[in-house]
MetA-pathway of phenol degradation (Solidesulfovibrio fructosivorans JJ]), 330 residues
Amino acid sequence: MPHPLRYLLVACLGILSLSCAPGLSGTARAAESGASHYSQGAYGDFLMAFIPGPGFALRSDTIYQSGHMDGTLKGGRVYAGLDQTMTLNVTTISRMFEVPAIGGFLGLGFGVPVIFNEHVTGDVTADYRARSRRAGLDAARQLHRGGDGDRGGLSDIFFMPVMAGWNFGECSLTVTPMVFLPTGYYDKNALTSLGMNYVTFDGNLAFTWLAKKRYELSFNAGYMINTENPATHYLSGNQFHLDWTLAYHVNERLAFGAVGYVLAQTTPDTGTGATMGGFYSSGTGLGPAVTATLPIGGKDFTFVAKWLHGLCAEHSFRGETVYGSLLLSF
């Protein structure tokens, strides 16, 4: 009999295929500037819903992103194409308490993202016809302009005002609402801004199943609700995101597997600043991941590495995302 994880893998690949289907993403437009507070693959991890116990947890994620997007409004201009590379670090601190009254854990946390450097280049291309002064005939012509920019610094910090988790034998479940605040530098006329300039509410539900045979299935489903950007009067549509992990744990200190994400905008962009219309965005990606826990100085340090390759995206960035993460509980 086929192993049940084969069916799970087929199901995940089916979700990726559907989200890349032309009917679902063919006329998509990204949230404002082709970006949002969701970062590709950021929620997908090993044992993402498992709570090891009460105490503090420190996590440092160093992320490299490189991607391309066709057709978007950014810095007050409509660009035919944008290319972006960015290196950043996100440091997250959380505290969990055991609460017998609910049979689980309650906690809170916050995260501070710092962009080391963001580099964006854009091309403005327009086709038009003009009359030749010499021949007096119309001729097809093309206007091409370009621009670029670099910037680094504090991005939009986020809070997890409540974190609730339960471990049920082989299964774990967590509920984590998050709030992103507009603390990063923003200039509506610049190609490079460090923040979104609006508040986002993100509700998340995570589930982990770690079988006795050391196979793991984990996923995090979230829904982002955005507020209007007061500088541009642009209200980005709400977004659903799903991150998943399929893995095999060699032992308690080593595991490897595959991670992926699905992103889909569920409501159109609105507001007076949405001059390109109320469209929808979508995107998917997947790649390998590995984790190892090493004892250093009497403490267990967990290292995670993952690479996500963008499979498809419409008017949102598609490319490569690489994570190098360090976790410490105390």
Remarks:
- Helices lie at 4-19, 22-25.
- The chain is about 5% helix and 60% strand.
- The first strand starts at residue 55 and ends at 74.
- Confidence is low (pLDDT under 50) at residues 22-30, 124-132, 141-146.
